[in-house]
């Protein structure tokens, strides 16, 4: 498992990507939008979203924000 805190300035965006293992994104402060192929989800402090492995997504800071990422690392190729 990998846990990381990501700090983003308002307007900054992580480009669309996917990770092999399941993950959670929890908003700690500020507000972010997580865009998925089927829509988007706005996260405010305390909100959490779960994504299965290989789900393409991007994250955009709607205000200065920090999020806690928890990723389950997958073994093998």
Features of this protein?
mainly beta; four-stranded antiparallel beta sheet; 8 strands; 0% helix; globular
Describe it for me?
Strand 4 (32-36) and strand 5 form a beta hairpin. This protein has strands at residues 2-8, 13-17, 23-29, 32-36, 39-43, 48-51, 57-61, 65-71. It has one domain (2-71): Sandwich (Jelly Rolls). Strands 1-8-3-6 form a 4-stranded antiparallel beta sheet, with no helix packed on it. The protein is an all-beta fold and 77 residues long.
Query: How many domains in all?
Result: 1
Helix coverage percent of residues? under 10%
Number of helices: 0
Classified by CATH, the class is Mainly Beta
What is the name of the CATH topology?
A: Jelly Rolls
Question: What is the secondary structure topology, with strand pairs?
Answer:
Layout: E1 2-8, E2 13-17, E3 23-29, E4 32-36, E5 39-43, E6 48-51, E7 57-61, E8 65-71
Antiparallel strand pairs: 1-8, 2-7, 3-6, 3-8, 4-5, 4-7
Summarize the structure in short.
By secondary structure, the protein is mainly beta. It is about 0% helix and about 60% strand.
């Amino acid at each position: 498992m990998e846990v990381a805190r990501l700090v983003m300035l308002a307007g900054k965006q992580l480009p669309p990507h996917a990770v092999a293992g399941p993950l959670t994104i929890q908003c700690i402060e500020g507000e972010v939008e997580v865009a998925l192929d089927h829509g988007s989800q706005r996260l405010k402090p305390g909100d959490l979203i779960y994504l299965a492995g290989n789900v393409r997504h991007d994250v955009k800071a709607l205000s200065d924000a920090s999020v806690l990422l928890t990723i389950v690392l997958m073994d093998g190729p």
